[in-house]
Amino acid sequence: MTTKEYEEDEFDRAAGTQPAGAHRQPVSRLKLAWPFLVVIIAAPVLAWIIVTVVLGGGDTSDASSTPPATTQAPQAPATPEVNKATPVTINNAAGVQGLAASAAGKLTDNGFTSINPTNSAARGISHTTVYYSSENHKAAAEAVAKILGIQAVEATPAGYQMPDGVAVYLLSDYSPSSAR
């Protein structure tokens, strides 16, 4: 058998222009690295999407420390509850007939239930004042002062013997018209 047993065809003609055998061009590094790059980039992006969309996490706003908005109007600061059963002694130290009784009537009209109007000396008190015997009675003393239109509200001074509860001393500076 000779090498030219067959006539020349297109394959024989192409053999002269291309490399013969297993000679291939080397593959670029980018072609080798692209699958790894896709995994390195796609995996974190996919994880972020799952956490954000599916689990509802990843909220970058500080919503956890901010309370939800409400439609309620702002409330006034809490005021202590007034115990209207607090004993209230009204001392008429002005010498005006019926002054303590008139003040007692105003307190009764406003819900106070334990009122004792009396005539008394001022005993060193210089102006109309509402005194309270303990912090428990401070709210009641402030309410009494507001009803009677008295500005001065104080704790009972040390050394004074006043009844438990609230003591009101009405002096000549008291004006019943300023009462509410």
Structure description:
By secondary structure, this protein is an alpha/beta fold. The chain has a domain at 88-178: Alpha-Beta Plaits, CATH 3.30.70. The protein is 30% helix and 12% strand. The chain is built from four helices and five strands, in the order ααβαββαββ. It has a five-stranded mixed β-sheet with strand order 2-1-5-3-4, covered by helices on one side. The mean pLDDT is 80.
Question: How would you summarize what this structure contains?
Answer:
The protein is of the alpha/beta class and 180 residues long. Helix content is 30%, strand content 12%.
Q: What topology emerges from the helices and strands here?
A:
Elements: H1 10-15, H2 29-54, E1 88-92, H3 99-109, E2 115-119, E3 129-132, H4 138-148, E4 153-155, E5 166-170
Parallel strand pairs: 1-2, 1-5, 3-4
Antiparallel strand pairs: 3-5
Transmembrane segments: 32-55
Domain LytR/CpsA/Psr regulator C-terminal: 86-174
Keywords: Membrane, Transmembrane, Transmembrane helix
